[in-house]
Design brief:
The protein has about 375 residues and is of the alpha+beta class. The chain has eleven helices and 19 strands. The strands form six sheets. The protein has a four-stranded mixed sheet. α2 links the parallel β3 and β4.
């Protein structure tokens, strides 16, 4: 995302190790022509597609081969309703994309599906204020990952944009809505990444306290803690921390609708290995269009450590083994969350090999170093 913004002419300055100063351009992209390589970052390509479609320039967006298998058709269809000129350079419905100048008209409500990825709605919400016009969005079908939309609306408000919401089906943006800098803004720690350490505490390497998120976090994945509580783990909240501890006995098996925590729910799949019976994670069809087909990948790799797994179209049923299978070699499918999830298996007292662990660099480059600190497991890294 940073590389793409620089190519588009946005001034970015790194002022400290984790601090950046972004100089706004009043809703106009300085460079009217650019070719952007987005890797496998859906969270980058989707909002940029929406914003650039309204900018009147010529742009191409592409990524790694897996990105070209991740759907973007619903977002493109929605933008085309407003007159956007977007072409597919490969398979219909998927990147790479070509965006050309167009006459944008948002006088009619834009309809978009909500059951594939919440990022499509997020992209529209963030981009439409750039038109300066009154705009409405209608969501077709069930909206998944609603807490992620709450994050979007919360942050847009902090930047001066008030979106009116009628349930989860209609969103309205008033004319002359203008983004305004809040000056300084603190980005919370990633609640999805925190789930691995909280799960470690629940499994028995606790108590483990994670800083950077707390009781007032705006991130939906904080509700992962509610799932741990259902498994009988003990959770304590502070203003800027959350702590997890294990129950007196085994974790309890759960049957849970995970629509609200799609990323953190992956961590529950490995935590289920330490439960007292079969667990079922439901409403997770969105896993299939992530960095890999996570439903299939999870089922395959969980079986390697001895679990009995039933894979459905939108669920996983996981029966833990009496004893974990040692020395399993886990494939990560170039998916950061697969690598981090299966590190938890080591907490069961068996060695495990994570193939291509470098994939964690996408969101958590020093994950294994941090994991080793809190679990006191012995970790060896090989090229």
């Amino acid at each position: 995302m940073l590389d793409a913004l620089k190519l588009l002419g946005i001034t970015l300055e790194q002022t400290a190790e984790h601090d950046w100063r972004v100089t706004g351009t009043a809703g106009k992209i300085p460079n009217r022509q650019a070719e952007l390589f987005m890797g496998n970052a859906g969270t980058a390509i989707r909002p940029l597609t929406a914003a650039l479609a309204l900018m009147g320039g010529d742009y191409k967006l592409s990524g790694v081969p897996r990105m070209h298998e991740r759907p973007i058709g619903d977002l493109v269809d929605a933008l085309r309703q407003a007159g956007a000129n977007i072409e597919y350079l490969g398979n219909t419905g998927f990147p790479p994309l070509k965006i050309s100048p167009a006459k944008i008209d948002v006088s009619q409500a834009i309809r978009i599906r909500g059951d594939v990825s919440s990022q499509f709605l997020t992209a529209l919400l963030m981009a439409l204020p750039l038109t300066g016009k009154t705009a409405q969005i209608e969501v077709i079908g069930e909206l998944i990952s609603k807490p992620y939309i709450e994050i979007t609306l919360n942050l847009m408000k902090r930047f001066g944009i008030n979106v009116q919401r009628d349930g989860w089906q209609r969103f309205s943006i008033q004319a002359n809505s203008v983004y305004q800098s809040p000056g300084d803004i603190h980005v919370e720690g990633d609640a999805s990444s925190a789930s691995y350490f909280l799960a470690a505490g629940a499994i028995g390497k606790g108590p483990v306290r994670v800083y950077g998120i707390g009781r007032n976090s705006i991130q939906g994945d904080v509700r992962f803690c509610e799932a741990l509580e259902l498994m009988d783990a003990s959770i304590t909240y502070g203003d800027n921390w959350i702590e997890a501890s294990a129950p007196a006995g085994k974790l309890k098996a759960i049957d849970l609708d995970c629509n609200h925590i799609p990323d953190a729910a992956m961590t529950l799949a490995t935590a289920a290995l330490f439960a007292d019976g079969p667990s079922r994670l439901r409403n997770i069809a969105s896993w299939r269009v992530k960095e890999t087909d996570r439903l299939s990948a999870m089922a395959t790799e969980l079986r390697k450590v001895g679990a009995i797994v039933e894979e459905g179209t939108d669920y996983l049923a996981i029966t833990p083994p009496a004893k974990l299978t040692p020395d399993a070699a886990i494939d990560t499918y170039d998916d950061h969350r697969m690598a981090m999830c299966f590190s938890l298996v080591a907490l069961g007292g068996v060695p495990i090999t994570i193939n291509e662990p470098g994939c964690v660099a996408k969101t958590f480059p020093d994950y294994f170093e941090q994991f080793a600190k809190i679990t006191h497991v012995q970790s060896q890294s090989q090229d």
